[in-house]
Write a structure and sequence with these properties.
Layout (H helix, E strand, L loop, with lengths): L10 H9 L2 H15 L3 H13 L3 H13 L7 H13 L3 H13 L7 H12 L4 H13 L7 H15 L7 H15 L4 H38 L2
Helix pairs in contact: 2-3, 3-4, 4-5, 5-6, 6-7, 7-8, 8-9, 9-10, 9-11
């Protein structure tokens, strides 16, 4: 079974950085720049101090380095430590990665129930990848009771989120739509209608959420440009 990997810089991470303090943003951005240049050791050095000071975004990023062995040896114990700290502060990337750690058995026993719990928390923050992974769990009854209608709902809502311009995960959106259609071929019409009704309701709510965030980011950007 294949669980999708996270695109490293998510919209939630962008929003967290915009909302953070200027010094923290500058330090994290320096680490991000080093990461993009392939200097993982320098990225870790920038993020380590922030993570130790309790910055959830840096904790999630540091945990990811330990998961993938970038600038440090692969160390699932350290990965779990930093990822959990971030996730328990509500960091979306941390929550997603906690789900992935438990689904993949990375340094822990595979536990699809625990994976589902963390994916649900990230899904509540409008995370497309977590919703996609929850759809897989619901369609197969892994860690949760099998529920094809819930799986279709999660695939549909993952597609809605992934297809928005700032997320831009168009391959994921297409895959989610394809998986939902395949699953619906095995379902009765009433269940399909119920799943679609829930999906349409979500789409309307997400559009309001997305537009609100868009205008807040636009206003923040305009204010930043006006600063001396």
């Amino acid at each position: 079974m294949r669980f999708i990997a996270r695109a490293w810089l998510s919209l939630a991470l962008i929003l967290a950085l915009v909302a953070g303090s200027a010094p923290a943003w500058a330090d994290f951005a320096a680490g991000r720049a080093a990461y993009e240049q392939g200097d993982f050791r320098a990225a870790r050095e920038q993020w380590q101090a922030l993570a130790e000071a309790g910055d959830a975004t840096a904790q999630a990023a540091l945990g990811s380095l330990y998961i993938h062995g970038e600038g440090v040896p692969v160390d699932y114990r350290e990965a779990l430590k930093w990822t959990r700290l971030a996730a328990e502060q509500g960091d979306l990337t941390g929550q997603f990665n906690m789900g992935s750690i438990h689904a993949g058995g990375l340094g822990v026993e595979k536990d699809f129930g625990e994976a589902a719990r963390w994916f649900h928390l990230a899904a509540e923050q409008y995370d497309a990848m977590s919703r996609f992974n929850l759809a897989i769990l619901y369609s197969r009854g892994l860690g949760v009771a099998r529920n094809d209608a819930e799986a279709v709902y999660m695939y549909n809502t993952a597609a809605v989120i992934a297809g928005t311009p700032e997320i831009g995960l168009h391959d994921l959106a297409g895959e989610a739509e394809r998986m939902a259609l395949n699953l619906m071929m095995t379902m009765d019409q009433q269940t399909i209608r119920e799943a679609h009704a829930r999906s349409k309701d979500f789409e309307a709510r997400y559009l309001k959420h997305y537009l609100k965030g868009y205008f807040e980011r636009k206003r923040s950007g305009e204010e930043a440009q006006q600063e001396p």
